Amino acid sequence: MLATIDHQSPAFRPVHPPVPKGEDACFQRNAQSVASYRCEVAEHRWVNDRYKYLKLSAPADLASATRPGQFYQLKCPTTNDLQPFLLRPMSVYGVGPEAGTIEFLYNVTGTGTHALASLPVGGAMDIVGPLGNTFTLPPGDERIMVVARGVGLATMAPLLRQAASMGIAITAVMSARAPKDLMRDEFLRGAEADVHCVYDSDGSSSVEAMDTLVRRLLGERHHDAVYTCGSHRVLMLLQRILADHPGTRGEVAMEQRMACGMGVCLSCVRLFNREGDKQFLRVCREGPVFPIGDVVGEVEFG
Q1: Which pLDDT value is given to residue 169?
Q2: How many whole angstroms separate alpha carbon 243 and alpha carbon 29?
Q3: Global confidence as pTM
């Protein structure tokens, strides 16, 4: 089956946002390449008993248009028992080497992902993107740290590949429930890194143990930046640690439930510290990547 760009469905029309100003410039730059695509399922298999790998082929150059940290909205199939209504946001796990190839790694946990897991090789899938901003990775950086847990590694895998291609040294702290859940090879994908694995099963992933580990690693060698995704407790831990390392940047790719993925429905707003003031921002549009220090951990609504 040949993949074709789907411009027929009103739900998947290309997005043409207004000319941006200020901080919207980044979004606009990325939004210029946003479109809907009908892809062919080239590969779809279990990685372990929780995570599945999906490889799609599109008739467009997604590889050069997609940046680390961005995501796509996926239209999950419907089955006799499962009828997911909304598109599902999913971080990009990889692109290329062919221009139209794009990869996702996902945890089969809800209605949408259970329906998605039924998609056969050779079938068709509609996706919309790329959406959102990207990780910051300046050419002058010499060493970075990534702290990954669970399926959050899928979001940061492209960042590792980019850092490795730029000759930037990598420290990777990988966390999982147990060794069988750790997808080390799937995360590194051939990139060289100083890897430290921690687990819930032996207590090495506890907040106290990770606090000691990350502080030791940052103390031994300067890191230009620390990146994370997914785990709230890891995010809060890094926020505290990086307060003691002002020379190290911190960025997080936020995971948040959302509907439109384009800044319209406001279902993904979170509270952030921005320029000395607290502001509600849309994770899909102003993010999903934010400075770690900007995230407000707890919000009380009166």
Answers
A1: 97
A2: 31
A3: 0.85
3-class state of residue 265 by DSSP: coil
* Tokens at 203, concatenated: 């207590």
How far is Cα 84 from Cα 172, in angstroms, rounded to an integer? 35
Stated as kind and residue range, the H or E segment containing 10 is: none
Q: Is 200 exposed, middle or buried, given 0-12, 13-18 or 19+ CB atoms closer than 10 A?
A: middle
Amino acid symbol at 141 = D
- Distance between CA atoms of residues 206 and 34, nearest Å: 40
Q: 110-129 b/e with 16+ CB inside 10 Å = b?
A: ebbbebbbebeeeebbbbbb
**Angle, CA of 14, 17 and 19, to the nearest 5°:** 140
Mutual orientation of helices 232-242 and 207-220 as an angle, nearest 10°? 40
Strand order in the sheet with 169-176: 194-199, 169-176, 143-149, 225-229, 249-253, 289-291
Tokens of 49: 């008993």
| SS3 of residue 98 by DSSP | coil
In angstroms, the CA 49 to CA 51 distance is 6
C-alpha distances in Å from residue 178, one per residue of 149, 195, 202, 203: 11, 16, 8, 10
Question: Contact at 8 Å (CB) between 148 and 171?
Answer: no
pLDDT score recorded for residue 4: 37
Predicted pLDDT at 20? 47
Using CA atoms, how far apart are residues 13 and 9, in angstroms rounded to an integer?
Answer: 7
Mean pLDDT by 10 residues, the chain (302 residues): 37 40 54 85 92 95 94 90 88 94 92 92 95 93 94 90 95 91 87 94 94 97 95 92 96 90 90 89 93 80 46
